[in-house]
Amino acid sequence: MFKIFRKNHTTANVELSDNNQLNALKLAAQKTAEEFNVDEQNIQSSIFASAAAGNTIIENRAVFMFATSDKKSRVHTMMLTFKNPVAWGNDKVPVDYLIVGMFPDSSDQNTVDAVTEKVTNIMHDKAAQLDDIKFNDSELNKLNQSFTN
Question: Which domains does the chain have, with CATH numbers?
Fold first, then answer.
């Protein structure tokens, strides 16, 4: 009867003052901490560790990374899109979508792998629409919600 409204956890058309990977990671940590009401320093450490372990690049334009928190009991995602792509990793992949998976501390590698696979598959299925979705708040919110439905 009543629909529970979910927070969207998306920010579109971000313009970084210094358009590089380090600033994108810092912003991702800040936004993730704000969105999920968790400690920013812990999230930044977690996101940087995820990036250092290796980036999951999807469709040559999106990066997926994850963070953990003892304040979360289920998986959530947060997404940023960049007005100007950020050169990512050693290969300088032009990333305009950044997706952070927020996992409970108790999550095992199988859970992380399953969510990573789901995000990858959905982004692959939507590849032809990503340019249109990128700045459309409603469609971006739907895309982000599909990762954890």
Answer: 10-146 (3.40.930.10)
